[in-house]
Amino acid sequence: MLTHLDSQGRANMVDVTEKAVTSREAVAEARVRMLPETLQMIVAGGHPKGDVFAVARIAGIQAAKKTSDLIPLCHPLMLTSVKVELNAEGADTVHIVARCKLSGQTGVEMEALTAASVAALTIYDMCKAVDRAMVIEHVRLLEKLGGKSGHFVADEKGEAP
Questions:
Q1: Which residues are catalytic?
Q2: HAMAP family, alphabetically (predicted)?
């Protein structure tokens, strides 16, 4: 059984020594709702701080690589791929999808979730001067492949089928 508690109930990092090395992948998403004018400015490339999507993409990739520095007890991983896609959705939303891959002994769910979250926070940071009412929402795992627990795909509500 995997747990973050040792035999004396103290928090520790899970020992993955005996787990097989397998191909693993995780996909997470986040959304940032904002004023339509804010999204128009981002899409048109008119933000005074530069290309918001490019900066958020880089921030998400960097965050995925540093997840073990941010999340206690998370394993440091050698990611083989991190992709962060950002797209306008409707008149007032940025949809972020982060995909992380590796070949290793533990999954990459936390890395994908961290990438999506930090990309969303970066959008907020870059745009807060023009839109303090932005909302970051729906940060969730969409899909997980590989490893002992198998394939997970979230339904529309974010629950396992």
A1: 125
A2: MoaC_B
Q: Is 1 annotated as a binding residue?
A: no
What's the pTM? Answer: 0.88
81-112 pLDDT, tens per residue?
999 999 999 999 999 999 999 988 787 999 99
Residue 111 marked in a binding site: yes
The CATH architecture that domain 31-146 belongs to is 2-Layer Sandwich (3.30)
Domain ranges of the chain: 31-146
Helix (H) or strand (E) holding 119: helix 109-127
- The CA–CA distances, whole Å, from 91 to 34, 87, 94, 116, 128 equal 9, 11, 9, 20, 18
- Return d(Cα 124, Cα 119) in angstroms, integer: 9
